[in-house]
Specification:
Number of domains: 2
CATH topology of the largest domain: Nucleotidyltransferase, domain 5
Strand content: 15-25%
Shape: globular
Distance between the termini: 21 Å
CATH architecture of the largest domain: 2-Layer Sandwich
Strand order of the largest sheet: 3-2-1-4-7
Largest sheet: 5 strands, mixed
Structural class: alpha/beta
Order of helices and strands: EEEHEEEHEHEEEHHHEHEH
Helix content: 25-40%
Length: about 290
């Protein structure tokens, strides 16, 4: 089939800092991509819409968004960003804007669910039975794919808001999460690291205690995922995970914490994203292809 006869898919990875836009003939065949800063909704959505209009006619659009978001299609708030702390974006009808402007089907999910689906189908999880994708950056979020589908319950998972056991050298920091204080995101996200040590993790000396503390908290999430879901592949992405040695430290500590108890044994793997910075965008195009 020639490219001229293929349907053009649109994808949006909607982040709190930037929107990454793409069009392609398949989730892995991106032909154009573009980034715009995340400003107020009216400005950001209009700029995104203008860019898509300049790319040709899209047949469907997938949105992988920061959250929290409403994923229940029976809800009048489906496709909305809900109670986000990002100023101006609470109750933003993200899917509705593009559905009205372009009149095409909209696929909608969280950014981490999109990335999890992408890594499962086209990245580090190819051939695996299940996969969790964890992003550690401005916030901490996670998506879980079981039996080929992203897990949705009453809403979407919020893995960054579990309460880890506090590290013995990190008792006094109260955490920065506006909702939960010292949940995982409140302790181990990029802003939490800067709040108590004045620098990003990658800027701190290799022997700084922060490396041990952050690895400990992330390891507890990995351990919990394995214990509760028996997930085969855990993919850690995001800016904090670019810190040299952090992934290896989490992998080693997870093995120690598991104490050779879990029956999955060596099937459980902790790895970096194979799709790199394209994971979320590939996921958005997957949502467009499957809507």
């Amino acid at each position: 089939m020639s490219s001229a006869s293929k349907s053009l898919l649109g994808g949006i990875e909607a982040g709190g800092t930037k929107f990454v836009l793409a069009v392609g003939y398949s989730p892995t065949e991106i032909i154009e991509r573009h980034e715009i800063p995340t400003r107020v909704p009216a400005t950001t959505l209009a700029q995104a819409g203008d860019w898509f209009e300049g790319q040709g006619t899209i047949s469907s659009l997938g949105i992988a968004s920061f959250g929290p978001v409403e994923l229940d299609r029976s809800s009048p708030l489906w496709g909305h960003i809900t109670n986000t702390p990002k100023p101006g974006w609470e109750n933003c009808d993200l899917a509705g804007y593009f559905a009205e402007r372009f009149g095409v089907p909209i696929g909608f999910d969280t950014d981490v669910n999109g990335a999890a689906l992408a890594e499962f189908q086209h990245g580090a999880g190819k051939g695996a039975s299940s996969l969790a994708y964890i992003t550690v950056g401005t916030g901490i979020g996670g998506g879980l794919v079981l039996d080929g589908r992203a897990v949705h319950g009453a809403a979407h998972p919020e893995m960054g808001h579990i309460f880890p056991r506090r590290h013995e050298d990190d008792r006094d920091f109260k955490g920065i999460c506006p909702h939960h204080g010292d949940c995982l995101e409140g302790l181990a996200s990029g802003p939490a690291i800067e709040a108590r040590w004045g620098a990003s993790l990658s800027e701190l000396p290799a022997d700084h205690i922060a490396h041990e503390i952050i690895a400990d908290y992330l390891t507890q999430l990995a351990h919990s995922l394995i214990a509760m879901t028996a997930v085969e592949m855990i993919v850690f992405g995001g800016g904090v995970m670019k810190t040299g040695g952090l992934l290896e430290r989490v992998d080693r500590k997870a093995s120690e914490l598991g104490a050779r108890y879990f029956p999955g044994g060596s099937k459980h793997k902790i790895v970096s994203p194979e799709l790199g910075h394209n994971a979320g965008l590939t996921g958005a195009l997957l949502l467009a292809a499957e809507v």
